[in-house]
């Protein structure tokens, strides 16, 4: 985590992610919890950091791409709900999706967007 340049309020987010991961993974929790960085925790922290950076740049195209590529398939209604929650309007979402379709990065499959 030291290699990231976090805002002071983001440190707590990453600490809670690590704590939650280790509590979920631990069979028994004692009086003290020691968090060890393993490969999966490192991957989760890197994903969270990458996603937060993409959201902070507030590019609808980047946010849409990351939402869909990480899952390989994404329900359209979920994508729209997340994008609206992040503050993007319908036009920004439509333009971002159009760019992904025209670059042949995604396609529609029923009620889902799918990575090509």
Model description:
By secondary structure, this protein is mainly α. It has two domains: 1-57, no CATH class; 59-116, Winged helix-like DNA-binding domain superfamily/Winged helix DNA-binding domain (Arc Repressor Mutant, subunit A). It has helices spanning 10-25, 39-57, 60-69, 76-85, 90-102; strands at 73-75, 106-109, 112-115. Strands 1-3-2 form a three-stranded antiparallel beta sheet. A hairpin with a 2-residue loop joins strand 2 (106-109) and strand 3 (112-115). Helix 1 (10-25) runs antiparallel to helix 2 (39-57) and helix 2 runs antiparallel to helix 3. The longest helix has 19 residues, at 39-57. The protein is elongated and about 55 Å long. The mean pLDDT is 87.
List the helices and strands and how they pair.
Elements: H1 10-25, H2 39-57, H3 60-69, E1 73-75, H4 76-85, H5 90-102, E2 106-109, E3 112-115
Antiparallel strand pairs: 1-3, 2-3
Helix pairs in contact: 1-2, 2-3, 3-5
What brief labels describe this structure?
116 residues; 2 domains; single chain; Arc Repressor Mutant, subunit A; mainly alpha
Please give the alpha-carbon distance between the first and last residues: 32 Å
What is the CATH architecture term of the largest domain? Answer: Orthogonal Bundle
List the total number of helices.
5
CATH class of the largest domain: Mainly Alpha
Major sheet size, sense and barrel closure: 3 strands, antiparallel
Give the structural class. Answer: mainly alpha
- Estimate the global geometry from the Cα principal axes: elongated
Q: What is the CATH topology descriptor of the largest domain?
A: Arc Repressor Mutant, subunit A
Overall pLDDT, averaged?
87
In angstroms, what is the radius of gyration?
A: 17 Å
Q: Could you state the order of secondary-structure elements as H and E?
A: HHHEHHEE
Give the strand order of the largest sheet, numbering strands 1, 2, ... along the chain. Answer: 1-3-2
Portion in strands: 5-15%
- The percent of residues in helical segments reads 55-70%
Unreliably modeled segments = none
CATH superfamily of the largest domain: Winged helix-like DNA-binding domain superfamily/Winged helix DNA-binding domain
Number of domains: 2
